[in-house]
Amino acid sequence: MRICSRNCDLARGRRCDHVNSRGIVCCPEESCMLRLCLAVAVSVAAVSAAFSQSDPIAARRDAMRAVSSATRDGAAIAEGRAPFDAAKVRSIFETYSRSAKAMPQLFPEDSRSGGQTRAAARIWEDRPGFTAALAKFDKDAVQAAADSKEVASFRAAFDRVAANCTSCHEAYRTRR
């Protein structure tokens, strides 16, 4: 005899209206709990997204940390400290591309100072140049992902993409 959470007796040969065709309990109370959990999860995601938009300095710092982590992984592969893994290489370049696409929106006019930012004033003074540098970074990352078939081609592509980081940081980041 199977009993659903509403204590309906299923042994009588009739289908409980609280159990679906696969025998899974779907009582109204449980559906409400599931809906509540889903609503809470969506709310948390929305609040997180709103917080990121309300604190662009923290959001761009997080994006740069992701790029830094990907660069460490790439350097380990390029230097032979880690094995070449096509999926890992693709992930590295996807992180670069995703960050390059997000960065222009993470430098609004009101985020020039505060929050331990190292963004140079030149970002806002030369917005077209900054946006072009990020577009080049994205383009080079996408091309590098396509070109990296083995270690040798990865090294060349990785060096080409990493040069974008250096030139952008020299132009658009303040020194400590």
TrEMBL record:
<dbReference type="GO" id="GO:0005506">
    <property type="term" value="F:iron ion binding"/>
</dbReference>
<dbReference type="Pfam" id="PF01322">
    <property type="entry name" value="Cytochrom_C_2"/>
</dbReference>
<dbReference type="GO" id="GO:0022900">
    <property type="term" value="P:electron transport chain"/>
</dbReference>
<dbReference type="GO" id="GO:0020037">
    <property type="term" value="F:heme binding"/>
</dbReference>
<protein>
    <submittedName>
        <fullName>Cytochrome c</fullName>
    </submittedName>
</protein>
<dbReference type="InterPro" id="IPR002321">
    <property type="entry name" value="Cyt_c_II"/>
</dbReference>
<dbReference type="GO" id="GO:0009055">
    <property type="term" value="F:electron transfer activity"/>
</dbReference>
<dbReference type="InterPro" id="IPR010980">
    <property type="entry name" value="Cyt_c/b562"/>
</dbReference>
